[in-house]
Amino acid sequence: MSSSNSHSNSHARKSIIPFWRDERVLTAAAQIISAIIFIGGLIWVGVNLLEAAEQRGLSLGFDFINDPAGFPISEAVIPYDDSYTFGTAFMVGLLNTLKISIIGIVLATILGTIVGLARLSTNWLVNRIALAYIELHRNIPLLVLLFIWYFAIFNKLPPTQESLELPGLLYINQRGLYLSWPRLTETGSLFAVSLLVGLILAIIAWVYLRRLRERSGHSTYFAGVSFVIFLVSVVLGLALSAWQPLWIDAPVLEGFNFTGGLRLTPEFTALLVGLVMYTAAFIAEVVRGGIQAVDLGQTEAAKAVGLKQMQTLGLVVIPQAMRVIIPPLISQFLNLTKNTSLALAIGYADLFNVGRIMINQAGRAVPIFGMIMVTYLIISLITSLILNIYNRKIQISEKST
Amino acid sequence: MTDAGNTQPASANIQPPSPPKLIVWLRRNLFNSWLNSALTLLAVGSIYFIGRAVLEWAFFTADWRPVTDNPILYLIGQYPRDQIWRVGASLLLVSFLTGMSWGKWQGVMRTFAMLLGAGLAVLGIIPAGGQMGSLAVRLFFLINVPVIFLGFLLGSRKFVTGRWVLGGWLFSFLVIPFLLRGTGAGTVLPIVETSLWGGLLVTLILAVGGILLSFPLGVLLALGRRSSLPVIKIFCIMFIEGIRGVPLITILFMSSIILALFLPPELRIDRLVRALIGMTIFSAAYTAENVRGGLQAVPAGQIEAAKAVGLNKFQTTLLVVLPQALRAVIPAIVGQFISLFKDTTLAIIVAINELLNIGKSILQSDVEYLQLQFEVYVFIAAVFWVLSYLMSFASRRLETALGIGER
């Protein structure tokens, strides 16, 4: 608008657009009103809570954290018994959740990839079996599957004396799953350190030499060099540990119980098996979709250039499929993590289950519940943050090539 | 080359006789390499052994009494048997409206009506004990089939508009809760406490109620998240991401147990309603994200065109953006409904008598049933499997019908 008629224009605006139709006033008003409603709601809720707390003698503070918890937890990653504090109990629950989430994510990814590839198999029968697996798991609620695994299968296993067994390796009975497990000997830590150092050096050598090759164009034998470094570290580690780095801790039946070996409780095993098999069905669909999203021309072009089948898969198809796969895969990982909370139904001591017992013991429903919610939120946010960074990295590599 | 063969039928005689189609198919799909042949044999072997074990178990070993003795428990739980007609009337209403929708819209509604009719007919015929086996109940299930057809006849009349049918559905959603709960002692409809409701009835109430109630909330949240007003936008993002970041079980637990502490003590909410609130809040966050996807899919040109025609922001959203966005997200919402339907099982944690919980109580109701977990839970899994498989089948038909992803 020009300056000559600015006066008449502002006059016109004053007369034509009343304040209740002025967009700036309206937007400001909408925001203020919604803020008032929101904050007012919070205050109302808060007042109610304080009143309820006073009437029922509830306490809202976090001072209970250092009191002894007074309840046992069936399995813990860190030392714990009922004389430890509520804070420790909460940590035990959190670590149990993280433990089953991480193991579950790894196994579900492996199984899901296998099923997803089977779904793409040219073998009709393998293809249909994979489809049946996927449809079976996707249309049944996870909780029902967990009930079947835990109440109908793991609880019905034979008693200790009549364990199902792969002698010397694996025993399954009512009390859980007993695995032979390699453990480090006294000198084994030297072996582990040597192995770790060797691995790091090998990776550094791989990355450096590979870059060197890309820059100079000469062959630098990066794979061979890294392999030799790793091999040396293995031999060195073995020598340092007097050739006995590991011993096999095999479960042995003593009286009515097994000792030794790695024991997985029936609750843990049932939850893990249920979660892994359920999530794998969803991951399989993600993997199949991702691989199918790669244009057929890419495979044909790779073949035309003379790449072998494995090279085509590893260098052309998978890198491109990953870009499609990663985002939905992230949400499957998050789902699995959140679904570990179903542990409550079968009695695995996860974050939510321990939290619920804490509420009963300490009588602080609101603060403990707040802790549970915030912890889950933080886990979700961190998981998606890490995987989003990874995702961005592979997206960038697309642009640079 | 094959084309040449086709155009010259006379030369076909020279070629050796082609092997039977079955053998060609087998060779191509099962035995095209030694690895695939090995896999095929392995698969056939395992299918044989697993299949035989499953069939033997299902027909000889399994003790299906907890399922067959009184199947009506799985449908409605402890709903008073003298008031059972109220559940029946609700079902008849739904059947009728499904039939009307079939007549009005054909397509997926036809599939849906057929499935409903077939399902109810099966319920009427299968051998069952308890009240399910009684003639009255059997007849009732069978009556639904002609009622669906009656609805179809009415729905296909010209004078019945889509608005009528939609109004009918809205009416039924408002009336059914009243019909089931009752209006008060001494009236025709004595109160039936929701703690007596159970089984598939409650599962469906939670799923259907959750998705319907969450829909308007989810649309508002999605609009709020895309709003240019920072305060509203931040509230909506906090709500959506906060809900999506925690497990459903914590939300159900909160709405059932913690929520009471935040409300004035006079305000006592029914337990089923509290669970429904939890399902709704949870579902709303996911609906919001689905709708947001739909909103993003509306081309900017549409909004500019609406502005050019002189519509204000409100009109643009209501008349131009939302209709297009919502049409695009229907399949996603159906998918969400299916997963919400499965998620209703979590209500067992807050002591709601949905299908899974009924199964659990039936196991404990009789000493002879105590060890029959496998039978009961496999039956419940089968019920869920059939229902959600049929729903996803219908939703795939819906997707093709709407032509989404084909434009």
Explain what you see.
The complex is a heterodimer of chains A (401) and B (407). Chain A has 401 residues and is of the alpha+beta class. Among the domains of chain A are: 6-56; 86-152 and 264-400, MetI-like (MetI-like fold, Orthogonal Bundle), CATH 1.10.3720.10. Chain A has helices at 6-16, 23-56, 86-119, 124-138, 142-153, 188-216, 222-240, 266-293, 296-305, 309-339, 343-346, 351-362, 365-400, and strands at residues 164-166, 170-173, 176-179, 181-184, 246-249, 252-254, 257-259, 262-264. In chain A, the strands form three sheets. Chain A has a four-stranded antiparallel beta sheet. A two-stranded antiparallel sheet of chain A has the order 4-5. In chain A, strands 6-7 form a two-stranded antiparallel ribbon. In chain A, strand 1 and strand 2 form a beta hairpin. In chain A, helix 3 crosses helix 8 (266-293), helix 4 packs across helix 8 (266-293) and helix 10 runs antiparallel to helix 13. The longest helix of chain A has 36 residues, at 365-400. Residues 1-10 of chain A have low confidence and may be disordered. Chain B is mainly alpha-helical. Chain B folds into two domains: 20-61; 74-402, MetI-like fold (Orthogonal Bundle), CATH 1.10.3720. In chain B, 73% of the residues lie in helices and 0% in strands. In chain B, helix 10 (200-225) crosses helix 13. The radius of gyration of chain B is 27 Å and the shape is globular. Chain B starts with a helix and ends in a 5-residue tail after the last helix. Residues 1-8 of chain B have low confidence and may be disordered. Classes of the chains: A alpha+beta (401), B mainly alpha (407).
